[in-house]
Amino acid sequence: MITEAFAQSDILVEYDYAPWKRALDLAAHDDHHGSVGWRKTKKRQRYFLFSKPLFTVDTVFFYNKSRPFDWARIEDVGHLKIGATLGYTYIDQLRAITRQHAGKLELAPSDEVNLRKLISGRIDVFPCSKSVGCFILNTQIGLPSAKTITYHPQPLRSGPIYLLISKNVPNAQTLIEQFNTGLLKLKESGRYDHIMHDCMKDLEKLSPTKIRQ
């Protein structure tokens, strides 16, 4: 989606991959133009311009099937040992609730590390994008370990994610406008729906529903 939207303005995109928080730091202070897949916060708006929304993401609690888990209110998880990935916007909320209810928040550099901690029983739950968590379980962790993990269907949060362009980039506003124009063209042509359909189809092949069985 990012590549094709920029291609509408003949802009070639190159990607570097880094742990979540490191990726944001590189985009804000290094020679990278931006980063993809972030929620909008006041702090991030100080350093970045935000594109139009890319799509909506659900964050859910993953947990080990050997430790049945249910929740209705955020207070219900306050007594647990919760894994969290550095850079995620939910950290302050979960830190406060675990302090109030004698739980514990453990930070890790990546989603994969947290999922492996779930598998080994070192944490009780881990909030993560449903699609990202399922993707990691099926492609980076794999069977049989992945089958020990499932997720609760109730979202901790649901909302759009964005492309971020660093305000340090001289033509940042132009890049955002070019991307937004390209994204609109993808939607008007039907290509956006095709891309999203293929992404969801690929995730279905990775069997997120089977993880819940």
What sort of overall outline do the alpha carbons produce when their principal axes are compared?
A: globular
How many individual domains? 2
CATH class of the largest domain: Alpha Beta
State mean pLDDT (0 to 100 scale): 90
The tally of helices reads 9
InterPro entries: Solute-binding_3/MltF_N (IPR001638)
Organism: Pseudodesulfovibrio profundus
Domain Solute-binding protein family 3/N-terminal: 13-196
Pfam families: SBP_bac_3
Keywords:
213 residues, alpha+beta, globular
Short description:
The chain has about 210 residues and is of the alpha+beta class. The protein is about 45% helix and about 20% strand. The strands form 2 sheets. Strands 1, 2, 3, 6, 7 and 8 form a 6-stranded antiparallel beta sheet that branches. Strands 4-5 form a two-stranded parallel ribbon.
Give a structural overview.
It contains nine helices and eight strands. The protein has two domains: 2-55 and 159-205, Periplasmic binding protein-like II (D-Maltodextrin-Binding Protein, domain 2), CATH 3.40.190; 57-157, Periplasmic binding protein-like II (D-Maltodextrin-Binding Protein, domain 2, 3-Layer(aba) Sandwich). The radius of gyration is 18 Å and the shape is globular. The chain is an alpha+beta fold and 213 residues long. InterPro entries: Solute-binding_3/MltF_N. Residues 13-196 form the Solute-binding protein family 3/N-terminal domain.
